[in-house]
Structures are given as C-alpha cells and as structure tokens.
DNA sequence: TTGAAAGCGTTACCAA
DNA sequence: TTGGTAACGCTTTCAA
C-alpha cells in the first residue's frame, strides 16, 4: 500500500508527454479526435506515472456520472440477482455502471437508499415494485432522470415500467390446480404487508378462487418476507393441522415451497399423491429437488435485460421527448412432479 | 419525470434562505458548527426547492468519495451475499457506501472491474480471494488506499486480510468421515482453475487423505465454477458409476452436495446408509433438505463484519502508520443427517 | 456562528 | 488535430 499524498493528474501527464492537459483528456475518451500517435505517447506517459482517470472530476465537469442506481429488495435472492445480472450484462458496453443497494423489503429503507443514491447524481434509477413512500416518489420525480419500476405493473407508475402482474401469475397456478380437479386449495406466504409482490400473488390467488366459486379461506402466513424454507415448513405444519384435507398449496416462492414439501415428506405425506405443491420464481431448487416442484417462471434475467434497454432508450431520447415505456413480461407456468 | 435542465445548487438554497452558500454547506454536514435555528431554516428552504446534496461535487472538492469498492465472484451466491450484508450493515453508520461488482470467478474480469472502480476513487477496496492478475495487484498497490482480501489466507497478501484456510476447512470434513470409520472418500467440485477457493478445498481434501495414508484418486469435476445443483447431480452419477463402493463424498459447496444427494435418492441409494455426503458453506438448503446435509460454516456474514471493521480501522489510522491486519476466521463443521 | 476567497481535476467551448 | 479559458458545485481555509 503505497501512501502517495497526491495521485498524478492530467496536468502531470501532459507535462510528461509534452502536450496540453486538454489533449490528455482527449486521449482518454473513445470519441475524441486525436492522432493515434499522440494518444500512444500520452497513454505511455500515463502508465509510467501510474495515472488513473479521475471520474469523480470528469463526472463533475461533464455532469455525467455513468451511474445507474438500482435498488432491489434483497441481495440474497436468486430472482433479483438474475435481474441484476441481466441489467449488468446488457449495460456493459455502454459505460454505465450499476450502483446497487437493497431495501430489505422496506419502503422506508428504500427512501433512505434512493436519497443516498440521488446524491450521486445517477443518470437513471431502477427500483423494484410500484409501492414507495410519498417522499420517495417526490424525490424520484424531482430527480429529472429516467425512472424504471420493475417486477410489477403499478397502477400509477412514476415513469417507465418493466414487469408483470403478480396476481395474474398466481391465477396461472390456480387454473392449473383446477384442471387437475383439485378444489381445496391453500396459499402459503409471509405475514404483514411488506412484500407487496407477495401480497399481490396472494390477492390474485384469492380472486382466482372466488371467481371460480371456490372457498378461499386457506391462507397461512409465516414469518416476515422474504419467507424462508424453514418458514415454509412451519407454514405447512400449520396448514396440515388446520385443514388436513387440503388438496393443493401454492407458495409465494419456490424456497417456501421447498420447505413445505420437505415438511410433508418428513411427516410421511406423499407429494403429489396426497397433496400438490407449487412455488414461484423458477429457482434452481424447484428443478433439482426430488420430487421437483411446479413453479412459475417470471423471467427474472429478461426483466433485467429489458430494463437496461429501457434505460438506454430513455437516455438516448432528447430531454423532453421521452414518454414512459411499459414492457410487459408474461410469466409461464412450469409443471413438475409435485403438481 | 420532470425534465429540469438544472437541479438547484447550494447557492439557490442560500439565496432562498438568506444565508451564504457556506452556511448551507454546513447545514448538510453532521459535525459542522451551525445554530439549530439556521439549520432548520436552510433544510426547509432546501426541501421547498427539491434540493439534494451533490456528492459528486462535494466528493470532488473534499477528495473523499465515501465509496468502498467491493468485488465478489458471483452475485447469485448466498455466501457472498451474506458477506456483503455484513459489510453493508457494519458500514451503515459511517457514511461509507458500497460499490459492488462481481467477477464471475474470473481474474481478468476482476482486473477490469477493479480498474473501473479505482476511477471512482474509492476510499478502500475489498476483493475476494488472494489470486489476482499481475496488473490488478499493481493497480491496487498504486491506489494508495487500504485493500482487504477476503475468504482466503493469501501467501503474499496485498494488504489486509479477513479469511480462513479453505484447505484446512476441507480437512475438517475428512477428519469427520474418518472418525465415522469411512475410508473410501471422494470429492466433487468444478473443473478448470477458476475458483481458487474451490481448488484449495480440493487440495486440502487430497492432502488430508494422503497424510492419513488413504487413497485420493476419487476426484470428480463437473461444470465450470460455481458448480450448480445440477452439476453436482451429474458428478454424482459419474462418481457412482466409476467408483460404486465410495463410502463418503465431500462436495465443494452445499448446492452441489444437494444435487448429489437428490441424484442418489432418485436412484434408490440411501443417504447416509449407503453413502455419506457433506457440503460446504452452511447454506439454508443444507439445513432444510431432507435428509439435512453435513456442512462447514465459514461464517460468511462475520467475514463481512470483520472486513468492515478492518476498513474503518485502516481509514482512521494516520496515513503512514497502518500496518496490515490479518483476521482469521475459524470454519466450523456442522454434522447433520447425511453424514 | 457565519462569510469570503481560493481551489479541487476535469470537460465544454471556442479559437488556432 | 491541438490548445487556452472558463466553468462545474462544493469544501477548505482563514478572517470576522
């Protein structure tokens, strides 16, 4: 760890290379008009001095930070990780860098994070879901940069949207269970109101049952979102003791579905012979578990890719002209051994 | 999306509040000497204008960006996610923000990322592992900021270290299998040389066998790191067909262990009656699967917390005085139903 | 506790 | 293709 009081600047490089600082600046940009020979001299001088471009200064000067601020509910979730991966890959060529933060499924924390990010002057902001604090909406609105809401279809979007209806996704599962002739259906999710997408799935589940004239009282909440495998297992215990004749259960995620399934197996309840189980999210575990788990693929990575494309389009558009884009993703049911 | 050509500045707020820009600056800092009354007036004026502090400018001026650059191998890995969580939580109070990137277990990509991050002038850099390209080491060395290597104990550290010996962790598992009287042991991991921590575990496994006079030829590689559940299952197939009398198998991670286990179950092989299985990383799945999986807990979140503390200590120390700190984590064996 | 002046390292803009 | 000059919005430093 070399403690150098002051890193070299463009002026230092300019002196070393015998050119003006402005020419050094050009040597470090892709588009600039500069002779290949001059550039080579400059890059060599820079390397010799250990010079690294200071984007802190260049961003300040050009009012372009190259940041895209992204908030996700949890950093430890394969679905959101896939979305971030899609975003990152698709943005790679464009000089844009992701500033990533997680909210713990908490809108207050989201507000804190968004404000912190806005101070960095990102060129665009990507948030998860359509539920935010009033102040958070105001901040985003006033930021004057493109905003994309993902993983949902908000009624009153802030700006752009790349998402799907979580309620409709739940209906896919209900319809599937119905086609298999099941009538006593249950839902396992987390308690409280923090995970709005999880709640939307529950709501969609209930509505789908009601519109089919089925009883919709079998709802079990266990643990605060995101609900874990262990909480899925606990919920399954509750479910089986309260409504032992349940024929099929949809879980808010594949992780809880896996927990519920192992709980059944531990208690000698056969899946799907005695009970069908479905999850959500197309996690690896749903495919690799034994038996494998019926699920819904929301195409998390695609959401990221399409979000990146939305950002790029919005950034390219002349300042006023950008009308909000909405990209709808169509989740897909994947039927497996459990259902 | 309000398109405002220019966001308000401190001068705008100062005019609105009837004070000097300098006083506005003080109102936005925690330590500054300013009367509570003045501050209140200013904050109100700022809110009215929709002013948000521009850290792009303040960082430039003060030469403090408030960034800690962090690179992890994969964004979709519960272990590294836990480390990031520990880091983030522990850093929350300190005005430091994490700049997170992932390398895909690739040192070339790591070099690219580190260079990109260094341009942002982070106040510290955290990397995973002790293996880097030559140029990456040079860049980090020249950056003049504290560097922390994690999840490993490098022979020739760049600066600070918070980690453990992956080889020794593997030996824990071998010793456990030995105490259960198993002699025909196998290892399942990924191929090639990208995941150096995985390789270290394999090396530790082999050395532990040899030092106990056991045969160490049962090594199966499947897929490029990080090896998935599916690849773990494929490796188990190979293993069982090539060495059907294997008594116990250690997998490079819990995910591959889970895949290997389900593959056994699918084929009617009882775990642990016919074969014992152990993983690594103390993932949720190892606890919740049925049967549950023997594993090694490397205390991923602790690694993050201790790393944050190392960063804070190094940042507090006067420029020259900081000698490298090494924090050793002691991984712990967790014996479960499979082993 | 408050204010004024002088940068911080880069890029935009215009001129050569 | 190159160079000079004037910002960019804030903090540091010193003075009141």
Q: Any overview of this molecule?
A:
2 copies of one chain form a homodimer. With 339 residues, chain A is an alpha/beta fold. The first copy, chain A, folds into 3 domains: 10-61, lambda repressor-like DNA-binding domains (434 Repressor (Amino-terminal Domain)); 65-164 and 300-330, Response regulator (Rossmann fold), CATH 3.40.50.2300; 166-297, Response regulator (Rossmann fold, 3-Layer(aba) Sandwich), CATH 3.40.50. Chain A is 45% helix and 14% strand. Chain A has helices at residues 10-17, 21-27, 36-49, 55-62, 78-91, 107-118, 134-142, 166-179, 196-211, 229-242, 254-266, 284-288, 300-316; strands spanning 67-72, 97-102, 124-128, 147-150, 160-163, 185-189, 219-221, 248-251, 276-278, 295-297, 326-328, 332-334. Chain A has a 6-stranded parallel β-sheet with strand order 2-1-3-4-5-11, with helices on both faces. In chain A, strands 7-6-8-9 form a 4-stranded parallel β-sheet, sandwiched between helices. The radius of gyration of chain A is 25 Å and the shape is elongated. At the A-B interface, helix 4, helix 5, strand 2, helix 6 and helix 7 of A face helix 4, helix 5, strand 2, helix 6 and helix 7 of B. Chain A binds a DNA duplex (16 and 16 nucleotides) through residues 9-11, 19-23, 25-26, 29, 33-35, 38, 53-63.
């Amino acid at each position: 760890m070399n403690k150098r009081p002051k890193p070299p600047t463009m002026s230092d490089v300019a002196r070393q290379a015998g050119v003006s600082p402005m020419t050094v600046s050009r040597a470090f940009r892709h588009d600039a008009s500069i002779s290949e020979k001059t550039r080579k001299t400059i890059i060599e001088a820079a390397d010799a001095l250990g010079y690294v471009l200071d984007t802190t200064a260049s961003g300040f000067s050009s009012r372009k930070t190259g940041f895209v601020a992204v908030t996700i509910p949890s950093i430890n979730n394969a679905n959101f990780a896939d979305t971030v991966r899609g975003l990152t890959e698709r943005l790679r060529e464009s000089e844009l860098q992701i500033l990533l933060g997680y909210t713990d499924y908490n809108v207050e924390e989201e507000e804190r994070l968004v404000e912190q990010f806005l101070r960095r002057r990102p060129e665009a902001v990507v948030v998860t879901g359509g539920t935010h604090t009033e102040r958070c909406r105001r901040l985003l609105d006033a930021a004057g940069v493109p905003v994309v809401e993902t993983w949902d279809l908000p009624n009153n979007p802030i700006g752009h949207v790349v998402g799907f209806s979580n309620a409709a996704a739940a209906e896919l599962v209900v319809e599937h269970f119905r086609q298999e002739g099941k009538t006593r259906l249950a839902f396992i999710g987390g308690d409280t109101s923090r995970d709005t997408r999880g709640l939307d799935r529950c709501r969609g589940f209930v509505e789908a049952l009601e519109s089919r004239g089925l009883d919709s009282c079998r709802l079990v909440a266990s643990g605060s979102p995101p609900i874990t495998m262990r909480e899925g297992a606990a919920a399954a215990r509750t479910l089986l003791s309260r409504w032992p004749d349940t024929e099929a259960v949809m879980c808010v995620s594949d992780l809880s579905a896996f927990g519920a399934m192992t709980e059944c197996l531990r208690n000698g309840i056969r899946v799907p012979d005695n009970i069908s189980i479905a999850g959500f999210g197309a996690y690896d575990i749903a495919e690799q578990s034994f038996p494998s788990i019926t699920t819904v693929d929301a195409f998390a990575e695609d959401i990221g890719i399409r979000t990146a494309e939305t950002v790029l389009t919005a950034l390219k558009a002349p300042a006023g002209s950008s009308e909000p884009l909405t990209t709808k993703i169509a989740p897909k049911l994947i039927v497996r051994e459990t259902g």
